[in-house]
C-alpha cells in the first residue's frame, strides 16, 4: 500500500453523498451535484436533505443513516451549527472521507478552533479523513468528480492534462486552474485544503506524487503547519521524478501575518521553508505566470542534466535579451565550435553564429537555412536545450515551410528540450505543441522555464546525501550556559574553539594570558549576558599583564552597570587569532521544521547583506561544503583577489558537526550562535571565537 493511499477514497471516490444538498444548482449545496451530473460522474450521487424527496432529478435522503450504501466521501455544506452532528453521523456510518465546505471555525476565533478540534477528533477516531473545513474542495475532470462550489466552471470546463494543483487557498487554487484553462494548459485536478484541520497540503502533494494520472505538481502555499508530511511528499515526488513548482507566499512580515489569519496556520520562517524546498529540488515560482510556464514546460518530461542552452534567432536584439536572462540564472550558453561558426558564415556572411545563432531575416528568403543553422547548432553545439526565437515570423506566409524545417531537426535529433518563442493565435500554438515544441510568447519566460527543467534534472539525478556525523544524545543545562560552558558542550561534538580559560580572579586571568601568549581577548563571563559586545563586554588586543589587570576590572564594572542582576562568573581569556575569515554558524529551531543550520560570512555581511544559507539538520560535510560555496561571498573564502584560501574543509566539518549537535541536543535547544568563527588559512583549521547557546525550559512545553 502506498504511503498516501489513505486519501484515495476522499480524492478519487466511487460514490458521493452531499449533505445540505440543494435543488438550486447555483447554491453552495447545489453546485457539486449540478457539475457532476453535467459532466457525467460515473459513480453514485446521494443528496441528503430532510426537506426534499428529490433534488436535481436524484432521489434525496433524509439522513446519512437512510443512505442505501456507505459512500466513499461526503460533501458537507450545512450551517456551522449542524456541522459537528454531520461529522458524527458520517463517522458512525463508516464514511472514509469528508469534504467540508462549511466555514466559521479556526479561521474565526478560539471557539471556532475548539469546535473544529472536536470534529477532527471524531473523524480520526473513526478513521475518516477530513478536507477543510472552510475549503473549496477538490475536482478531477478525468473522473468528472467535482466536490467543489467554485463558480469557475460557469465559464468553461478544465482542459484535460497531467498537471495536478494543490492549494491552501480555494479562491487562488481555482484562479490558477482558470489561468491554466484559458492558456490551454491541462491542469485538470485541483485540491484545496482550507483550514487543514486534518488533511494538509503536504499530504495532497504526496498523493499527487503517487497518482499515475499526474506528471507535474503545482502548489500554492501560504504557511506550512506540518513538516513530516510535507517532507515525505517532497521525497515521494523526487523519487517518482515528478517536478514540483511551488508558489510560496508570505515572504514579508505583513504577508506572513495575512497568511496566518487567512488559513489559521503557522506561516513559519520563509527562508526556512525555501531552504527545505531547495533541499528537495522544489522550484519556487515568483508568480502564477511563472508557475504555469514551468509546469507546462515540465509536462514534456525532459529534464536535461547538465543543462545548456542553444538559441536560434532571427533577431540580434532578442539574442542579447536571452543571453542576459540566461546569465542571470546561471544557465550555460557555450559558444558554437569555431569550425561550425565558419561554416555558417560561408552561407550567410553577415550572420552571427556564436550563440545565440542569429540567422537573420535571410531565412525568409531561403527557408532551408532554418534547418541548416538549427541542425548545426544541435549537432555541432551539442546543446541540451534549444530555443528558437521567430516572433512574428510565425504569422508570415512562409511559416509553414519554416515549421517543416524546424520539425525535421527536432525529429532527427530527439532527446532534447525544444522550445519556441513565437506570436501565433491559439490554434497555431496548439499545432506547434502537438508537433512537440513548448511554446512561449515571451523569450524571458521561455529561458526561465528551460532553466527550471535543468534544475529538476539535477535534483532527480542527485546522489544520496552524505551521512551526518554521529553525536551522542546529551542533556542540556537547566538554563542558558555561559560562553565557556557552551564551548565545553560543543567540544564534545568536535567543534573547536580558540585556546581559552575561564578566570574567576584577576591573577588567574594574568596566568592564562601568559600561557597563551599576547595578544589575548578578554570577555565578560555570564550566562545572563548573551550579547556581550552590546555592553562593551569584549576587549581585544590585550598586549601585556597590566592591560589584563585593568581589563579585568573594567569588564566587571561594565557588567555591574549594564546588567546589575546578572550572574557574573568572571572573565574569559582567549588566545587572539589572526589572519582568518570571519564567518557565522548558527542553529535556529523552527517551530515547523525543527533545527535549521545557518551559514554566512560574519560581521557586516550577515547583518547588512544577509548573505546566508539555511539547511535542515543534520547533514554531512559534503553538504556543508556545498552550503559554504553557495553564498555570494564565497570567493572571500576561496582565494579571491590574492587572499589566502581558507580552510573550507575544516569549516564544513564544523558546520556538519554543529548540525548533528543540534539534533542530539533535543527539543530544548532553541538556538546556537557561533559568531564569529574564524576560518584560518587552508590547513590551519576553523575555530569558534564566541558561542551562545539558548535553551528552553525543562519539562513539558
What is the approximate shape? flat
Beta content: 15-25%
As a whole number of angstroms, the C-alpha radius of gyration is: 31 Å
Give the CATH level 1 class of the largest domain: Alpha Beta
Estimate the mean pLDDT confidence: 93
Considering the protein shown, what is the CATH homologous superfamily of the largest domain?
Succinyl-CoA synthetase domains
CATH topology of the largest domain: Rossmann fold
Task: State the distance separating the first and last CA atoms.
Answer: 36 Å
The overall number of domains is 5
Q: Reading side by side through the largest sheet, how are the strands ordered?
A: 9-8-11-10-12-13-14
SS content category: alpha/beta
CATH architecture of the largest domain: 3-Layer(aba) Sandwich
Share of helix among residues?
Answer: 25-40%
Number of helices: 22
Number of strands: 29
What would you note in describing this structure?
Helices cover 37% and strands 20% of the residues. It contains 22 helices and 29 strands. The strands form 6 sheets. The chain has a 7-stranded mixed beta sheet, with helices on both faces. Strands 24, 25, 26, 27, 28 and 29 form a 6-stranded antiparallel beta sheet that branches. The protein folds into 5 domains: 1-136, NAD(P)-binding Rossmann-like Domain (Rossmann fold, 3-Layer(aba) Sandwich), CATH 3.40.50; 150-299, Rossmann fold (3-Layer(aba) Sandwich); 309-461, Rossmann fold, CATH 3.40.50.261; 499-575, 2-Layer Sandwich (Dna Ligase, domain 1); 581-695, D-amino Acid Aminotransferase, Chain A, domain 1 (2-Layer Sandwich), CATH 3.30.470. The chain is of the alpha/beta class and 701 residues long. Mean pLDDT is 93; it is low at 254-268.
Amino acid at each position: 500500500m502506498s504511503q498516501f493511499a489513505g486519501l484515495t477514497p476522499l480524492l478519487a471516490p466511487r460514490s458521493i453523498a452531499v449533505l445540505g444538498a440543494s435543488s438550486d444548482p447555483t447554491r453552495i449545496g447545489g453546485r457539486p451535484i449540478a457539475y457532476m451530473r453535467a459532466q457525467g460522474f460515473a459513480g453514485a450521487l446521494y443528496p441528503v436533505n430532510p426537506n426534499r424527496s428529490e433534488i436535481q432529478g436524484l432521489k434525496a435522503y433524509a439522513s446519512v443513516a437512510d443512505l442505501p450504501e456507505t459512500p466513499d466521501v461526503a460533501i458537507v455544506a450545512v450551517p456551522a451549527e449542524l456541522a459537528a452532528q454531520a461529522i458524527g453521523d458520517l463517522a458512525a456510518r463508516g464514511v472514509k472521507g469528508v469534504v467540508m465546505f462549511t466555514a466559521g471555525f479556526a479561521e474565526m476565533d478560539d471557539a471556532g478552533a475548539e469546535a473544529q478540534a472536536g470534529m477532527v477528533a471524531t473523524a480520526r477516531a473513526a478513521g475518516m479523513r477530513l478536507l477543510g473545513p472552510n475549503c473549496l474542495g477538490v475536482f478531477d475532470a478525468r473522473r468528472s468528480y467535482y466536490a467543489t462550489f467554485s463558480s469557475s466552471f460557469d465559464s468553461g470546463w478544465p482542459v484535460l492534462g497531467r498537471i495536478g494543483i494543490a492549494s491552501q487557498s480555494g479562491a487562488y487554487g481555482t484562479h490558477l486552474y482558470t489561468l491554466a484553462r484559458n492558456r490551454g494548459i491541462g491542469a485538470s485536478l485541483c485540491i484545496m485544503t482550507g483550514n487543514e484541520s486534518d488533511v494538509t497540503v503536504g499530504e495532497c502533494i504526496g498523493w499527487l506524487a503517487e497518482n499515475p494520472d499526474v506528471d507535474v505538481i503545482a502548489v500554492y502555499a501560504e504557511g506550512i503547519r506540518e513538516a513530516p508530511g510535507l517532507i515525505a511528499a517532497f521525497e515521494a515526488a523526487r523519487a517518482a521524478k515528478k517536478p514540483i513548482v511551488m508558489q510560496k507566499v508570505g515572504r514579508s512580515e505583513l504577508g506572513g501575518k495575512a497568511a496566518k489569519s487567512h488559513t489559521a496556520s503557522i506561516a513559519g520562517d520563509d527562508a526556512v521553508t525555501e531552504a527545505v524546498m531547495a533541499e528537495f529540488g522544489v522550484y519556487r515560482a515568483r508568480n502564477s505566470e511563472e508557475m504555469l510556464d514551468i509546469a507546462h514546460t515540465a509536462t514534456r518530461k525532459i529534464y536535461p542534466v547538465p543543462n545548456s542552452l542553444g538559441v536560434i534567432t532571427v533577431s540580434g536584439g532578442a539574442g542579447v535579451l536571452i543571453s542576459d536572462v540566461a546569465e542571470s540564472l546561471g544557465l550555460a550558453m557555450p559558444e558554437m565550435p569555431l569550425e561550425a561558426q565558419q561554416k555558417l558564415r560561408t552561407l550567410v556572411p553577415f550572420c552571427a553564429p556564436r550563440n545565440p545563432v542569429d540567422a537573420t531575416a535571410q531565412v525568409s528568403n531561403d527557408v532551408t537555412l532554418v534547418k541548416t543553422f538549427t541542425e548545426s547548432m544541435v549537432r555541432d553545439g551539442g546543446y541540451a536545450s534549444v530555443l528558437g526565437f521567430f516572433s512574428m515570423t510565425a504569422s508570415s506566409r512562409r511559416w509553414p515551410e519554416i515549421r517543416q524545417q524546424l520539425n525535421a531537426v527536432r525529429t532527427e535529433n530527439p532527446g532534447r528540450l525544444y522550445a519556441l518563442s513565437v506570436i501565433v493565435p491559439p490554434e497555431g500554438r496548439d499545432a506547434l505543441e502537438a508537433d512537440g515544441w513548448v511554446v512561449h510568447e515571451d523569450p524571458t519566460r521561455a529561458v526561465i522555464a528551460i532553466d527550471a527543467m535543468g534544475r529538476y534534472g539535477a535534483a532527480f539525478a542527485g546522489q544520496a546525501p552524505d551521512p551526518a556525523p554521529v553525536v551522542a544524545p546529551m542533556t542540556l543545562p537547566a538554563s542558558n550556559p555561559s560562553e565557556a560552558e557552551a564551548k565545553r558542550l560543543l567540544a564534545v561534538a568536535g567543534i573547536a574553539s580558540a585556546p581559552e580559560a575561564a578566570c574567576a580572579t584577576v591573577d588567574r586571568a594574568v596566568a592564562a594570558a601568559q600561557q597563551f601568549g599576547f595578544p589575548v581577548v578578554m570577555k565578560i563571563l555570564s550566562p545572563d549576558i548573551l550579547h556581550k559586545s552590546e555592553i562593551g563586554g569584549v576587549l581585544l588586543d590585550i598586549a601585556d599583564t597590566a592591560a589584563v589587570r585593568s581589563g579585568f576590572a573594567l569588564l566587571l564594572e561594565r557588567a555591574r552597570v549594564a546588567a546589575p542582576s546578572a550572574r557574573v562568573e568572571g572573565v574569559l581569556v582567549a588566545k587572539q587569532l589572526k589572519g582568518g575569515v570571519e564567518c557565522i554558524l548558527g542553529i535556529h529551531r523552527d517551530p515547523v521544521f525543527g533545527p535549521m543550520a545557518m551559514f554566512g560570512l560574519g560581521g557586516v555581511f550577515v547583518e547588512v547583506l544577509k548573505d546566508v544559507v539555511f539547511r535542515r539538520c543534520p547533514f554531512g560535510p559534503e553538504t556543508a561544503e556545498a552550503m559554504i560555496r553557495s553564498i555570494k561571498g564565497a570567493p572571500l573564502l576561496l582565494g579571491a583577489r590574492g587572499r589566502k584560501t581558507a580552510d573550507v574543509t575544516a569549516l564544513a566539518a564544523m558546520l556538519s558537526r554543529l548540525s548533528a549537535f543540534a539534533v542530539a541536543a533535543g527539543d530544548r535547544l532553541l538556538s546556537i550562535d557561533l559568531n564569529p568563527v574564524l576560518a584560518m588559512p587552508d590547513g590551519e583549521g576553523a575555530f569558534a571565537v564566541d558561542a551562545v547557546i539558548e535553551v528552553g525550559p525543562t519539562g513539558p512545553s
